[in-house]
Design goal:
CATH class: Alpha Beta
Number of strands: 9
Keywords: Glycosidase, Hydrolase
Strand content: 25-35%
Domain Nucleoside phosphorylase: 105-161
Shape: globular
CATH superfamily: Nucleoside phosphorylase domain
Number of helices: 6
Organism: Dermacoccus nishinomiyaensis
CATH topology: Rossmann fold
Distance between the termini: 5 Å
Order of helices and strands: EEHHEEEHEEHEHEH
EC number: 3.2.2.1
Structural class: alpha/beta
Number of domains: 1
CATH architecture: 3-Layer(aba) Sandwich
Protein name: Nucleosidase
Largest sheet: 9 strands, mixed
Length: 186
Amino acid sequence: MTLVVAAAASETRYLPADVDVVLTGLGKTAAAIATTRALAERTPQERAGLQVVNLGSCGALRPGMRGVFEPGVVLNHDISADAIRALGHDVRERLGVGAGDPELVLATGDLFVSDAQVRDALAERASLVDMEGYAVVAACQAFDVPVRVVKHVSDDADASAFDWATLVDTSARDLAAWFTANVSST
């Protein structure tokens, strides 16, 4: 069984009608809560046969990135990991995602990246940026549920990001095509 987790209905509007979809809202906190709730409401037996697919739009941090990507690493980019480690606490700011490309890193944070300088700084650590992927992966890993992260580049994480409401329709179409070609909804 497949559960699609996405931030907004506009990202899933072209999925087949029978697909089980959880909409989280924007940001890491909302995504963590909604994903955890959706997994906790299922019995251990239901979770054993479940796969989560986090579909959504994202910003490109590097030139020329277009289309659909499946990152193999998610990075919580707006946590002070080094400072927290210096205080003696373990921080897992990087999580592996088994099915994805291990060389492709998705940076997740609550910051809506629309500034070229912020984008360029993030590009030193990642290729793509979103606001929910890390939280969805962390929740799934806490429940031992397999997860795939699939993102479509909607913008270049600069001023063009403010056109997201218009650009997301292309993302939704391409994500639905990817889902239909790559995932069984049963």
